[in-house]
Amino acid sequence: MQRLLLMATVGLIRSVSSFTSSLYAAKSLLAFASSSLVTSSSSPSRYYTFDGSCQPINSNSNNRLSRRSSSTSFSHGMMSKSAGSLEVVQFPCLGDNYGYLIHDPKTGQTAAVDTPCATSYKRELDKRGWKLTHILNTHHHSDHVGGNMALKSEGVKVFGPANDGNIPGIDVRLADNDTLSFSGANAVVMDVGGHTRGHIAYYFPEEKSAFVGDSLFALGCGRMFEGTPQQFWTSLQRLRNLPDDTSIYCAHEYTESNARFAMSVEPSNPNLVRRVEEIKAKRARGEPTVPSLLGEEKATNPFLRGDISSEIRNNVCASEGEDGASIFHKLRLRKDNFRG
Ligand SMILES: [Zn+2]
């Protein structure tokens, strides 16, 4: 097996023996599905090839990574199966988590987004005859990393937030604006701290999809366990700035509960009223409400609307000129104590 030397963002040298693909790290690109393995240091002017040599990155360097054709697509639903496309499989895990597998039928590579439960992941992998190659963690909570070590066998690399020291088995630490490429489909790493300090999201712009963990939920957001209101609000604003047609793959089916809270703070929003009815109908049929579209969230999710909805501002008793982070904090505290 070829032995590959990587220089990480913090200057550590790692050995990686199992990728057959290319990998860019830190401020550049992480790629893992083409012919060579490449990672940059924290300096944007260098990258390290699979044989350990260091070369300058020139303006054409990104072109070394093949981008998938427009046939690459994610489904807005439970599963997509299309030759030449990445497939996303979504399945329930534990009590109310969703597990995700991203699979490239051309290369056979398969990524798990978080690992709530190794048993469920193994079942879904075995069902399809897929072999796990990558784990993409969003943050350290046990219902997101609990299956890491049970799923990490030879050939499986664990990616996770650089600003989180508690990701079991982590191999590659990712920072804000790193980009990784799964079979050429680029994913931008977004720092969306607030739920935890080191929370990241994986945004695939070409696939119009974002895997956001517990940062943003359908009609809600995660509890603020570690971050600050300003940090969390900044993260939500960044997510809010993604295109409206981005599918938001969050980690929990909390939407009905979130809907009750949303209705308590913005009951006059017609888009919210309509969406709540749709959610009730979906759940009554046993269907998931995830993924949702960012445009829906912008129109209805109170945690993205505190600075733009006068009704929400009034309901949380925001003062004239109160900033978005402060209104977000009031909403978050109110939701923490909501018994609707
Ligand atoms: Zn969490």
TrEMBL record:
Pfam families reported in the protein's UniProt record: HAGH_C (PF16123), Lactamase_B (PF00753)
NCBIfam families on file: GSH_gloB
Enzyme class: hydrolase
Name recorded for this polypeptide: hydroxyacylglutathione hydrolase
Keywords: Hydrolase, Metal-binding, Signal, Zinc
Pathway: Secondary metabolite metabolism; methylglyoxal degradation; (R)-lactate from methylglyoxal: step 2/2
Keyword Hydrolase: yes
UniProt xrefs under SUPFAM superfamilies: Metallo-hydrolase/oxidoreductase
Gene3D superfamilies the UniProt entry points to: Ribonuclease Z/Hydroxyacylglutathione hydrolase-like
An example molecular function term from Gene Ontology annotations: hydroxyacylglutathione hydrolase activity
Cofactor dependence: Zn(2+)
Domain Metallo-beta-lactamase residue range list: 96-252
Native source species: Discostella pseudostelligera
Entry-linked PROSITE patterns: BETA_LACTAMASE_B_1
Family membership noted in the UniProt record: Belongs to the metallo-beta-lactamase superfamily. Glyoxalase II family.
InterPro entries on file: Beta-lactamase_class-B_CS (IPR001018), Clx_II_MBL (IPR035680), Glyoxalase_II_hydrolase (IPR050110), HAGH_C (IPR032282), Hydroxyacylglutathione_Hdrlase (IPR017782), Metallo-B-lactamas (IPR001279), RibonucZ/Hydroxyglut_hydro (IPR036866)
Signal peptide coordinates: 1-18
Coiled-coil region list: none
